[in-house]
Write a structure and sequence with these properties.
single chain, 225 residues, alpha/beta, 11-stranded mixed sheet, 6 helices, potassium transport
């Protein structure tokens, strides 16, 4: 997979390193000469150019990319890169970094963004995820379909503990995608049982989040009464 990353700062280079380890072809783009540090990510292609300029994106052959990641520290730049990537080059998947949470509402399909990643929101979500049991934590927002990646750690007293996945009446527009149990990552089947302490990851419509949280957090005594 070919991935272009606009922004070769610490964030962009870190993403590039991870993707290169997974066997992907990476192009890093930045207009600042000081950001071009080929020795830091030598396996990547590098381009000294302004990613907001059509001529630069033509040089980058953006139409050949499967994914574009707008990872600069400027939200305006990330929006422009996302819009150009989607509308001018038809890039199938556009991921954009949100630096200021106040701008998060802009990062949607109208600006060509498929997935918006808010670093401050993600950090706070990870803190919540680490300390919260029984509370739904939103980890990631997907622009298309108004869906979010959410997590809930199943509490000891949950009425669903010991219940098979296939026996649960999940809310509409909700999908259980992963169960993290200790050091294991499980792809859930209908026969798998839910256990107290499981970290459950869902893709869910925002309108269903409260319903999902209520379902998972209901206590045994409440369910029995």
């Amino acid at each position: 997979m070919r991935v272009a990353i606009a922004g070769a700062g610490a964030v962009g280079r870190s993403i590039a390193g991870e993707l290169l380890e997974n066997g992907h072809e990476i192009l890093l783009i930045d207009k600042a000469p000081t950001a071009i540090s080929v020795e830091r990510v030598p396996q990547a292609e590098w381009l000294l150019a302004d990613a907001c300029e059509i001529t630069s994106l033509d040089e980058a052959a953006l139409q050949r990319c499967n994914v574009v990641i707008a990872a600069t520290g400027d939200d305006k730049v990330n929006l422009v890169v996302s819009l150009l990537a989607k509308t001018e080059y038809g890039v199938p998947r556009v991921v954009a970094r949100v630096n200021n949470p106040k701008n998060e509402w802009l990062f949607n399909e109208s600006w060509g963004v498929d997935v918006a990643v808010s670093t401050p929101r993600l950090m706070s979500a990870l803190v919540e995820e680490a300390v919260s049991v029984g509370d739904l934590v939103r980890l990631l927002r997907f622009s298309h379909g108004d869906a979010n990646l959410v997590e809930l750690t199943l509490p000891e007293e949950s009425a669903l503990a010991g219940t098979q996945v296939g026996d649960v009446e999940w809310p509409e527009d909700t999908s259980l995608v992963t169960i993290i149990r200790g050091t294991r990552v499980l792809t859930p089947s209908r026969e798998d049982s839910l256990e107290a302490g499981d970290e459950l990851l869902f893709v869910a419509a925002q309108a269903r989040e409260e319903q999902l949280e209520d379902l998972l957090s209901v206590r045994r005594e409440d369910a029995a009464s």
